[in-house]
Write a structure and sequence with these properties.
- By secondary structure, the chain is of the alpha/beta class.
- The protein is 60% helix and 9% strand.
- It is built from 12 helices and 5 strands.
- Strands 2-1-3-4-5 form a 5-stranded parallel beta sheet, sandwiched between helices.
- Helix 2 packs antiparallel against helix 9 and helix 9 packs antiparallel against helix 10.
- The chain is globular.
- About 7% of the residues have low confidence.
Length: 262
């Protein structure tokens, strides 16, 4: 019974691309996964079920990862301690310390790698998860190499349960293209109405998804947009948003060539 609990992990993540990735990584490592879309759902899930560990995104709707962790620790008291491993795309100085101060036990920077999840869970669960050997980089057209990280795509192909490296990646790419298109539209609306809070949240969300698929150009542009939103720089944000939309078009074209879909 204890072993069954240790093999079940709660993924707390609001981005559908990163949800799918985390669940696939856990399946590859032999763990079962359940998903919570915000911090409040995570608190309730841990209160009503036992998990071997929680993979906790830090920037979440309703209740963020820091608040959710603090509430989980308050409810657990001294009776139990569920390992909580932070997942964050911020990667800023002091992030690890802030996570630990909130009551988290460990820290994984996005984009999440199979080896990082395996190592983190093994540290806290003493499990037998193994890391699959990475294959050679996927053969991309030269035009795509400037836009996508081939090593990242190669790792994502390793998560395909079908064995040919295509099925899961196709699903992930379709999810990314759909969610990123919606986020870009919402981001443009936020810029037009001067909503810096929404700009920050959407740029951060899009940055995490872009990092998952291996788009350094989109990641950098989203990072810049986050910075402009925090300082109220709306005029340069409009120009930067145009650059981000152009980069997304390049990524879409590169993905069409690198990951043929039916």
């Amino acid at each position: 019974m204890l072993e069954d609990r240790r093999r079940r992990v709660l993924v707390v993540e609001d981005n559908p691309v990163n949800q799918a990735l985390a669940v696939a990584i856990l399946a590859k490592l032999g763990y079962g996964a359940e998903v919570a879309g915000n911090g409040r759902e995570a608190v309730e899930a841990v209160a009503h079920a036992a998990y071997g560990a929680v993979l906790m995104d830090c920037q979440l709707p309703v209740m963020d990862g820091y608040q959710a962790t603090a509430e989980i620790r308050r409810r657990e008291g001294g009776d139990r301690h569920t390992p909580i491993i932070a997942m964050t795309a911020a990667a800023l100085p002091g992030d690890r310390e802030r996570c630990l101060a909130a009551g988290m036990d460990d820290y994984i920077a996005k984009p999440v790698l199979v080896s990082d999840v395996a190592a983190g869970l093994s540290r806290w669960l003493h499990g037998e998860a193994t890391v699959p050997r990475a294959s050679a980089s996927v053969d991309l057209a030269e035009s795509a190499r400037d836009v996508l990280d081939p090593d990242r795509l190669a790792e994502l192909r390793q998560l395909d349960s079908a064995g040919d490296g295509s099925e899961f990646l196709c699903v992930l790419v379709d999810c990314f293209l759909t969610s990123a298109s919606a986020d870009l539209a919402s981001l443009r609306a936020a810029v037009q109405r001067g909503d810096t809070t929404a700009m920050t949240d959407l740029a951060h969300r899009l940055k995490g998804a872009a990092a998952t698929l291996g788009s350094p150009g989109m990641v950098n542009l989203c990072q810049e947009l986050e910075g402009l939103a925090s300082t109220g720089g709306l005029a340069p944000a409009r120009e930067l948003l145009c650059c981000l939309e152009q980069e997304f078009a390049r990524v879409t074209t590169a993905l069409d060539g690198a990951v043929p879909r039916r």
